[in-house]
Design a protein that fits this description.
By secondary structure, this protein is an alpha/beta fold. The chain has six helices and twelve strands.
Length: about 220
Amino acid sequence: MIDTNKIVLITPDRNDRPEFLEHCRRQMKGQTVKGPLHLVVNYDPVPGVIDLVPRIIEGLDVARKMGYEYAFIIENDDYYPQDYLEKMIPLFQVADMIGIDKTIYYSIQYRSYKVMPHPGRASLFSTGFRIGALDRFKWPPRGTLYFDIPLWKHQCSKAFASLENMPIGIKHGKGFCPANFHNGIVNGRPMKKMVDDRSLMWLRRNVSDDSFNFYKGLMK
């Protein structure tokens, strides 16, 4: 059995979308698994500088010093079902790095969603790992944006979960969003092959009531 008191949840944050961070904190407090520490790394950013990697490194340094053995990356603007940790944690019994090999994106502006499979890796917001497994990890440049790609190339044992209730990558355009897709737009146009949800019925079925009201409030 995995000791949940040895698990840390690391959230990189730039203090530029406090409403999302508050919602993220509520989601983590509402998890069915109790015990993990939620560590928010939110020192003041340099405007326009991509600093995801340094924030994760800082969070892991703190976690190691405190004796934590496992980590999940929890992004402040994404949706997590209440049983996310409960369903994911058992995978640590068979692998050092765990995740979900497909991603659901939801665009707040365009009220639409998309499912993207990517066999062999997970998105960063649905990734967990044994901290010691990264001892020999070659960290990418500090300004790396898509950190999930080099992370999942690291040589260690890996396992993927198939969840009925999936986390969802929320696209919104709030705060510093350098990543492509982050506001539902690619090269000035809406993402392709998005499924229409102007009725919000898909969103209502796939997130909690609290999260639905939060996201709906952002659409006003």
